[in-house]
């Protein structure tokens, strides 16, 4: 089984990091192919970049010429999953949803700890649309930008742990979801320090994608995610 | 005051039609500039095209070099409004939200009548995110594609009236919102036939945009719609 | 176009203030007629006075003999809008709903800052019924009574700014709505001090009323707001 | 114990009927005093009359000079309960809420069967505000006006049974609430024909009022229902 | 009228205490029979004991050979009410729901003060399922275990008052519900200290059960609570 | 990895069938151990049996002396999952939640098709509590009892397909979840006939349990699912 794990930003080192995290979660026999978008921003921290990433991820997957069995969109709180579902016959798993869905099997309420304050409403919106918000205690920001996570993992762990602890004691979360693709790899550390289960969306998404493939399940094509109708495109795709 | 009204598809005749409808609703002294996206599909009828339109509308507005006072995104149920709000200092009005918001001043519940069945969940999602769904009785599809509306207005009116009547009698709607930018101009006809107020999103958006400008109000920049952070972009914008 | 702006209390100076605020927001060619209820309390700060105001506003509008194009109910969080919609063929706009509806175009979440603590649940109830509560971050009280706002505007601004700041930082509001007809005129000052958009319900209502009139839209009469059925009244109206 | 049961319309025969129904539900030792409002419409079938009734019921209770232990507002889906709670130290029970609250002890979902179609949104709004709507399967209209119920009880029973049956089979209600003060007395008949429990709001309200009195409980005065602040009234009460 | 009040734990002294509280709330002519479950834990403070109590309460009631008119399940936030409703033809009242339902007649929002932190999610879940959560401001834990309430009532009152005060000032509750069967008898004391109405679920349940019996109402049998279908049981009931 | 799959009824042939379905979904290296409860009903079709099953499943798992890595509760819409989570350190997966959670990755809305009409509210309640109801289009009953599914699979498929088709066309479901442990094995057949993805809760639960184990995740023990406190039990467990 081959699963494409698509980064939403164009920073290759982050693609590598996501790919390693995905590979660590994969079953024997699952090949993880980590892709960097063909175009877009070096980090996605707002709606403009996120919308650009949405279309970049779609075009990147369409340009991938080898067969594959599932796709993971590895940006937390980002746009675009619905479009991938239309374009593809194989299952599509968004790490925002994967993280929340997995957390709900582990405790009464969960919280998400993300990067910047401005990402909070984006994540809240994605969880609301996904219908996975009823048991979300809070979405909290560590205040670190996406790329800062990589530059200084110790500081990242400290900042995330602080928010995680507030989520558990004040917001009554019982599980923490790491709300950024770039946090991949910090979960064990944070779990040790907070004592609650910590879900990494990328790892969760890998297991869900594998499960759907093994169960022979994929996106329903009867309505919302039917294949795009034939269109005439102007100036697209860019040469 | 100059308001940009941006079509989401690349069909010029539809841009013209939307522009005329907007101009008809505008106050004296308001200049309507109707824009066609620089790239994208000839009609938007699904998530792939919609995401592409989201980014195309943003780039089109960014490429517009004259001053302007507000922007209307003239695609019903489409993605992208949040990105525009980040990029711009002037008010941004989405016709989906404008239609719903206006309808809520006119009756206890409203319904949206749109084009294809597959657009229904997209519109439901937009209304849910906008927090304008509590008084939405239903979103109904006429079964006509976006371009069919222009080709055969009589058939369009008939199909839309049929759904509007079901919305009023079965779903208990008291107001109908036309759920497609391409329906601009059909409102008077449908109002006559159903006896309930019919809201055209484009016209509603023009009055809301004008109102915000006159009140000196624009998008809050303290969190969700703060300007994008500086980024390094790869292969973007397309040459 | 003539718009009636009806105060909910019988304090003439407050009617004047509301009228001036409305006039400042009106388009050229719009005549604002500010009305004081024929009966009722000198300020409305609870349900008893609010219900009395509801019926007083209705009777006052019915007693107005000149033609008019729209009515604004200028009490924040008060009862009665539904009755006006039944009685009249022209659009009716409640400032509570106008403020919220306008705020929702400007930020991800809004908060209302009102007068007394006891007004908070009333406003929450009106927003809930209007289906405009999903993006309401909080309703906060400044602790000042309605008439104190006029007596000491400086103190009012200070108290309101304090609550507005808490709304932005703690409740994550991105827009502030002034939750009292008597706050008309304080918006510019508060906006300067908080840095977020501040919506005055009266001004917002004027632009919405004008918009509905210009669009030829008015209250749906098919069900909830159909004209009252013929009744025999005992001891009413009072001689 | 003396309980005031206040009709919302000025039709004395309906006050009598409500009083009898209340008395039939009362415990030994409870005196039911049925009051007709001092002013208002002969039947309440819309928001204008309902708002008028709200204030009329309040003034009628205030004009009642004997001691009493609780007040029941005997109009289904009407305005005004909050005002009574402010004015009085004794418990106030609204029959809309009493009926719903009682029904929720009897089955998984309940439906309300009321008079006219236009009453449906009013009842839905009252239940929503009361937070008693989550288990409401539907509010259905029999199509009969308030006074028609008295004129032709057989026809009323037939029309109500028909809607009750649809509520049970189509809307999955397991309990029926009679949604009109004027339906008092029809419950046994309808129960026999539908096989599900039928709750009469007036009878339910009597038992709830008695219970609150016996438990020594009354309206909280710390915030929403604190006594009205001192006011200067213009032209009120009417001479 | 005979009402069975069934404790959920096997501590006889607590059954006695609950029985006394129920008797104090009962009308003349109502006989309260307090039952201790035939099996189970000495206190119920989690889901395992609660599920065990659910089935123990059912078997205990089934083993009761005298006639009775209603059953009260006297465990706050516990499982099992639905099963009793299936098994019995007489009304079943859960004290969690009785307390909430009664509180809703007394103020705009209510809070529950319970024993241990771990009981909070259980109570939240019961209120959500019962559709009585919309006006619940908070569920707060005093930190005392069920049996500690009996051992040291003074300390219990102090701890509960502290949470009640926070509920009123911070969570904006206007009514307090005592969230444990074992708190029966503390209500007067707490009411005196907080100034808001305090509802004891056991007392409230007694009046509701009496009311249902007097109104001739009992559980609907058309669907959810139809009698159990005939089954073959293995190893049950235990010899 | 060893996963216990616990039937909720005492019919051994159904345990076998569930075990086979689970084994078919399991990864190589996963051992499925299907358990029949030590006591309880031969089929669970209502709350009484379901509560009994809840405690029976818990005692059965406690009595299992070999090591295991996860537990699946294989009754659709049944009680008890929270208790298992308290008792165990390993992950617990309920098939109701597993089915819904999986379906949400496959389409915009899903419907559940279950056995008897009376099971519908039970399933709705479980989904509501799990916070997985927002995208549930409907829960529909095929009208067949649990044991009838085994006796006549052809008739079962026909009845389920009919409801599935109504769910897709009328309720706008895009995915079908089989709402009964006893439906295990019918999914492929139904998928073929309806054209939408069909999720079997047992199979879904196996993959989720495996995933949690592989990710090293288990139930959070900080609050709701902390281990039971020490208790003294009367007459339990049964000898």
From TrEMBL, chains A, B, C, D, E, F:
<dbReference type="InterPro" id="IPR052186">
    <property type="entry name" value="Hydantoin_racemase-like"/>
</dbReference>
<dbReference type="Pfam" id="PF01177">
    <property type="entry name" value="Asp_Glu_race"/>
</dbReference>
<dbReference type="InterPro" id="IPR053714">
    <property type="entry name" value="Iso_Racemase_Enz_sf"/>
</dbReference>
<protein>
    <recommendedName>
        <fullName>Hydantoin racemase</fullName>
        <ecNumber>5.1.99.5</ecNumber>
    </recommendedName>
</protein>
<comment type="similarity">
    <text>Belongs to the HyuE racemase family.</text>
</comment>
<dbReference type="GO" id="GO:0036348">
    <property type="term" value="F:hydantoin racemase activity"/>
</dbReference>
<dbReference type="GO" id="GO:0047661">
    <property type="term" value="F:amino-acid racemase activity"/>
</dbReference>
<dbReference type="InterPro" id="IPR015942">
    <property type="entry name" value="Asp/Glu/hydantoin_racemase"/>
</dbReference>
